[in-house]
Amino acid sequence: MIGVAPQQNHLSAKGPGYWVKTILVEGLLLLGLIASVFPFYWVFVMSTNTTSDIYRVPPKVIPGGNLWTNVTNVLTNMDFFQSFANSLIVSLVCTVLALFFCSIAGFTFAKFEFPGRNVLFALLLGTMLIPTAGSTVASFVIMANLGWIGTFLPLIIPGMATAFGIFWMRQYALSAIPNELIDAARLDGCGHLRIYWHVALPALRPALGFFGILTFITSWNDYLWPLIVLNDPRMYTLQVSLTSLKGVYDTDYSMIMAGTLMSTIPLIIIFFLGARQFIANISAGALKF
């Protein structure tokens, strides 16, 4: 009874304003959750109905029974599994390379002194101001001169190191990696690569988790650049291949929504798997430091 009384007094001390604020915050979070989940639910609903059902007024808001038919039409009208494999290869390779190069560059900018470091970092940030559409023509000319058009190289090589990725890793490394830890590693005879591998990478795992998810999703959803540089339908990524489902005179939107749903499922799986690891690493980092 002695240990329970202070807790009861503490709860009773919370006035109506506290509960109103709590209900308001929880309500806003619930609305945000609904707004985030509803587009995925709506795509699922449209993919389980027919195109005529999509145009109904009022629209149907419950799933129908046409999902398997739409999925079968998708598999019949496009080489889904080949395009899926192409997207998976490009996204995985691009993600792995970006994680390595951006993390080692960000770690170097954050913890090592070298001539021109601030100037180079300022130039790097300046490239973030250039819109993607403004550099598309120049990038295509470079890729054509290198003879890479029609291959996966234009989708992978330019994404190996991004300005945002290096900036993100640098900012995280500034606070996550103590200078004393690096000095201790140097006293033990570690070179730059060993310090990066044994000191920087364990501390950067939460940042790597976030950036890996972001890079994979960005590469998977990329449409314009693969459409420009790929000229063989057998090498089309999934987002480019989905455009073949659109007819010239008539379009089966329920089939397109089914294809969109099928292309979204891997992203949802990757996000949930990566998010769990991301949150776990944040907790471990907080306890460690």
A few lines on this structure:
The chain is 74% helix and 0% strand. It has 14 helices and no strands. The chain is globular.
Count of domain modules:
2
Going by CATH, the architecture of the largest domain would be Orthogonal Bundle
Q: What is the highest CATH level, the class of the largest domain?
A: Mainly Alpha
Q: How many whole angstroms does the radius of gyration measure?
A: 25 Å
Quaternary structure of the protein: single chain
Percent strand: under 5%
Unreliable residue stretches: 284-289
> How many strand elements?
0
End-to-end separation in angstroms reads: 38 Å
Structural class of the helices, strands and pairings? mainly alpha
* Share of helical residues: over 70%
User: Mean of the pLDDT scores?
Assistant: 85
Put simply, the count of helices is 14
Under CATH, the topology of the largest domain can be stated as: MetI-like fold
The topology string of helices and strands comes to HHHHHHHHHHHHHH
Q: Estimate the global geometry from the Cα principal axes.
A: globular
Described by strand count, sense and barrel closure, the largest sheet is: none
Q: Considering the protein shown, what is the CATH homologous superfamily of the largest domain?
A: MetI-like
